[in-house]
Design brief:
The complex is a heterodimer of chains A (about 325) and B (about 290). By secondary structure, chain A is mostly helical. Chain A contains 15 helices and 2 strands. Chain B has 10 helices and 2 strands, in the order ααααββαααααα. Chain B has helices at about 5-35, 45-60, 65-85, 95-115, 140-165, 165-185, 190-210, 220-235, 240-260, 265-280, and strands at about 130-135, 140. In chain B, β1 and β2 form a beta hairpin. Helices cover about 75% and strands about 5% of the residues of chain B. A two-stranded antiparallel sheet of chain B has the order 1-2.
């Protein structure tokens, strides 16, 4: 499909696409649900990776945009008569609009301030969702999202998610391989030099922040459709952290890495939570292990899946900031 | 609600009390950042655990014993985290250090749930901290005065240590350039551990003075850490005076915000932060970035 014209590996990619199309056939429901969730969370991870991996802006607050997307769909579906497709369309716009406001403050700051400020603004969004009970349902969340009947089966939601994911993937691929995408990588590697070249640094950073927020909003909206509701947790710091963990597991050097990260995370969650209900502590130790022993991610550690990561072609091997900026 | 002078004064006192609590936490945060170059995302977590630990220890002994022990225990745990975790990655990218402390936040959340359950806990009334006094028609609860006094004493003590002792000079030297300090024969490794422990101890003191006033919940770690971030952003990262100024501003703004929009008081603190960021991106007392 769309990646085909990029040369080698076309067959492999087509096979993978075919595999994902055929996968739900005859599978138990819970497996289809899991797959759907992997793609939704993976899309969130990809959005975070646009900032963290490609632009070197480490955000600790992207859960806010995921939550905003989720609540946009949730609120529109429960409080107005807007059709689902329109609500899904508004979700990234809302998230991007908030991304513009929050990003305005965040992108002009250095790394540490950026990290603190994104976390702080993320928690502000969470707090407002959590406390504005009359509007958002507060702690109880929004329930009773009714999808159009065409999306009533698990398979239908899976294919819908897969479709949205594929479109987003294509757009992101275009973005990171455009002059804009290369500029972002240059900014990640050496912002000073990019500034000297006369490129308006802040505006570029804000642009990628907004775009990334928009994609996070889409994944949040999908998740509302998937769970038929929206809850404050969707916007919490823990969700923002999950985005980072996915990027880390997948390796910042990989375009599709966050999807692998999402799969690892969700499979692990399935296994762990069947006999141990404290998922957060497991996640914490997982993050510790990755940070201490596999800072370049599982993909970076040599477990490379050939169809998915393409280190040989130069333009796509992205040494993450972790490797380049050692000082 | 009628706004009277005494109401305003009462809110001012409450704001000052909040501010002093934020100062205790933010000063530790900014000290650790200044010396170690790490932003400790788990600072609120250490604070939260101290509050829970204080309640448990106070039940076993009494509040005052707990008040001394809890911060020390937390400082020890902090020291272990520094030695076994942080120390391994000082040379790595800053992102990894942030992520490491972030991992501690995840772990802390469930440690508290495992050890103390999911229901809020609170300290039984401490006899000496009951009651209050009236000044100009404003009630000053003893527990507030206690918070302000302890925080002020700690702040002055820290200033004395930093500016009047040899260790303080060394610490300040390390905030400027720890590599040179290392080359001059100062045991920087030990110093890093001690400064981290001091920072955590300060957060612990915050937890101890807050324990009689608040109830301990599992979400309090994030609630306070984002306010601390607001404090250091308003005041300027790496500046103790900035932390004090920022803490008082955020505390007062939040306190008066409660009068106007009780549910969203936090938004006012963020409003102030946003304004400061536009006018002075490095914070009110922060040095402009080199």
């Amino acid at each position: 499909m769309l990646l085909g014209k990029y040369g080698k590996g076309t067959l492999g990619r087509s096979l993978i696409v075919l595999l994902f199309l055929l996968l739900p056939i005859g599978m138990p429901k819970f497996f289809i649900f899991l797959l759907t969730e992997i793609f939704i969370l993976g899309l969130f991870g990809l959005a975070v990776n646009l900032l963290v991996g490609y632009s070197g802006m480490v955000t600790f607050g992207h859960g806010a945009f995921y939550g905003l997307g989720a609540y946009t769909v949730g609120l529109l579906m429960t409080k107005t008569g807007i059709p689902f497709a329109a609500a899904m369309f508004v979700a990234p716009l809302t998230a991007a609009a908030f991304g513009l406001i929050i990003g305005f403050f965040c992108v002009r700051l250095t790394q540490f301030y950026f990290a603190m400020l994104t976390l702080a603004f993320g928690m502000l969004v969470w707090a407002i969702i959590y406390k504005w009970e009359s509007f958002t349902g507060g702690d109880n969340g929004l329930v009773g999202v009714v999808l159009p009947s065409i999306l009533s089966s698990p398979q239908a939601i899976y294919y819908f998610t897969l479709g949205v994911f594929a479109v987003c993937l294509a757009i992101q691929w275009k973005i990171i391989n455009s002059p804009f995408g290369y500029t972002m990588r240059a900014i990640r590697e050496n912002p000073e030099r990019v500034r000297f070249l006369g490129i308006p640094l802040t505006r570029y950073k804000l642009a990628i922040f907004v775009v990334s927020a928009g994609f996070a909003g889409i994944s949040g909206g999908l998740y509302t459709a998937f769970t038929k509701g929206a809850f404050p947790d969707y916007a919490s710091w823990a969700k923002s952290g999950e985005g980072l963990i996915m990027v880390l597991i997948g390796g910042m050097s990989s375009f599709i890495g966050p999807l692998i990260g999402s799969a690892v995370l969700l499979f692990l969650q399935q296994i762990v939570t069947t006999f141990f209900k404290y998922w957060s502590i497991v996640l914490g130790f997982l993050l510790l292990l990755v940070v201490l022993f596999l800072p370049e991610g599982v993909m970076g550690a040599g477990v490379r899946i050939r169809f998915l990561s393409r280190p040989k072609e130069g333009e796509n091997s992205n040494p993450g900031p972790a490797r380049k900026e050692k000082r | 609600m009628e706004v009277t002078l005494s109401l305003i004064l009462a809110q001012a006192v409450a704001g000052l009390t909040r501010g002093m609590l934020y100062y205790l936490l933010a000063s530790g945060l900014t000290l650790i950042f200044g010396v170690l170059g790490v932003i400790n995302f788990a600072h609120g977590t250490f604070y939260m655990v101290t509050v829970f630990l204080t309640i448990t220890l106070a039940a076993a002994t009494n509040y005052w014993v707990a008040a001394v022990l809890a911060p020390l225990i937390l400082a020890l745990i902090g020291g272990l985290c520094e030695i076994f975790l942080l120390r391994r990655i000082y040379k790595a990218h800053h992102l990894l250090q942030l992520l490491l402390t972030f991992a501690l936040v995840y772990i802390g959340v469930d440690v508290v749930k495992l050890a103390w359950g999911t229901y809020p806990k609170s300290l039984p009334p401490v006899e000496l901290l009951q009651g209050g006094m009236f000044m100009g028609g404003v009630r000053l609860p003893t527990s507030y005065l206690f918070m302000i006094a302890v925080s002020a004493a700690t702040g002055i003590g820290m200033w004395l240590i930093l500016y009047k002792t040899k260790w303080g000079t060394i610490i300040r030297a390390c905030t400027i350039d720890s590599e040179v300090a290392d080359a001059l024969g100062i045991n920087v490794r030990l110093l890093f551990t001690l400064v981290f422990m001091l920072g955590i101890w300060l957060a612990g003191i915050g937890g101890v003075v807050a324990a009689p006033v608040i109830s301990a919940t599992s979400g309090m770690d994030m609630e306070i850490i984002i306010l601390c971030f607001a404090v250091v952003i308003v005041g300027g990262v790496g500046s103790l005076r900035g932390a004090l100024l920022g803490a008082l501003i955020i505390g007062l703004v939040e306190s008066f915000g409660l009068l106007i929009l009780p549910q969203f008081a936090i938004a006012f603190a963020f409003g102030v932060m946003a304004v400061v960021l536009i006018i002075r991106p490095t914070g009110l007392l922060g040095k402009p970035a080199a």
